[in-house]
Amino acid sequence: MIISHFPKCVAVFALLALSVGALDTFIAAVYEHVVILPNRTETPVSKEEALLLMNKNIDVLEKAVKLAAKQGAHIIVTPEDGIYGWIFTRESIYPYLEDIPDPGVNWIPCRDPWRFGNTLVQQRLSCLAKDNSIYVVANIGDKKPCNARDSQCPPDGRYQYNTDVVFDSQGKLVARYHKYNLFAPEIQFDFPKDSELVTFDTPFGKFGIFTCFDIFSHDPAVVVVDEFQVDSILYPTAWYNTLPLLSAVPFHSAWAKAMGVNLLAANTHNTSMHMTGSGIYAPEAVKVYHYDMETESGQLLLSELKSRPRREPTYPAAVDWHAYASSVKPFSSEQSDFPGMIYFDEFTFTKLKRNTGNYTACQKDLCCHLTYKMSEKRTDEVYALGAFDGLHTVEGQYYLQICTLLKCQTTDLETCGEPVGSAFTKFEDFSLSGTFGTRYVFPQIILSGSQLAPERHYEISRDGRLRSRSGAPLPVLVMALYGRVFEKDPPRLGQGSGKFQ
Fold first, then answer.
1. Annotated active-site positions, please?
2. Which residues pair with 400 in a beta bridge?
3. 25-311, superfamily in CATH?
4. Is the pTM of this model over 0.90?
5. Rounded Cα gap, residues 221 and 205, in angstroms
6. Which of 134, 143, 250, 487 is least buried, going by the fewest C-beta atoms within 10 A?
7. How do residues 417-442 score in pLDDT, each as one tens digit?
8. Tens of pLDDT along 128-142?
9. Alpha carbons 345 and 189: distance in angstroms, whole number
């Protein structure tokens, strides 16, 4: 485990400076970027050609940075793979990589561009931050030489890392994070030997940073929040939406709510790969989000956030996700269970047969309880309550406990768990709970058209119920309590057996 921190003497000075200029709120910005992709090739292009493509993407990001700064933003997050894309082999990405030093070197690339060799991308990002007086967060590739004395050194003599960088408003490199949990198709990058817990202080709170698939992990995602007590997470991602349970906006907003931090999530935009969904999320509410499968255009989002949300009276209370569900007996409603698949996991489902009722679905140690009332029971739409308690094994390995209410794709029960875009059945009342064996449960409600349910229409009770509170009829597509049981995970999420490995 690697912890990024300042030397003690510098840290003391920094804390004194921060206490003087501390801000209660700040303006956050994220940019969903339509990445200009290189041509697919296994033969590396020249360094000049690689730089030309990267500059084309930075030209677009520059406009977003300048616009955000003009609107008062203190910090902007851009997406994972946002500068060069993702169509690479290990060899073909090499011309796009730069040597990214440890932030402890006290370096402003805009003022000293050749200190660490050819670092033209870092120089440009640094100047963008400095010239616009804004923190800039970007995702680029790092290269580090190694030799035979290192038993893990790759045959080509170098490590290649998926890397986030942060430049402060003076253009100084203040954070560098190597993605720890690589997604299965990321064959162009190496796994870091150790997890890096990267945090840094600003006048508007303490920040942590990690990337995309890391959000499923205990290390670094949970550790940097629980043990390092950060206020906000910077989150570059290249997330392709996998309905019904793994759509970017619902999952990321649920994570922010459950973990009690601000989350600044910037996704790439590529509708052919179902990539969209960026947002700015606070513990108590979704501030702003963008989801667009209709157009091919980027989107800048801005919102004001509390700098230190834990100190606020609106900060959510702790939830005991086991309390209510373990206190009630399983409901029996003449139900018959049936299996169904969601993202390669076999759920135990039961069909909702009437417009009102109480149902229980169980699998292993998890029992999911649902009480509900529909405005009417339509004959052309079918809903099911599902439970899953097991190890997910495709594109990584991680242990899940999930309770979900969802609309089936058709009236055929074999389609329960398949993606659905619209719903006409409206739920006037609902309560969903489960006998979870973890405190890390992420609650989400997705409405017709893949829209988030506004917070005024539901609440999370302290005894672990996701329940309605407004009485307004809601056209529910998916309702879920998505639990992660970290102690049952393998050592690293991305190194399990998987479809691409």
1. 80, 179, 212
2. 390, 484
3. Carbon-nitrogen hydrolase (3.60.110.10)
4. yes
5. 18
6. 487
7. 999 999 999 999 999 999 999 999 99
8. 999 999 999 999 999
9. 27
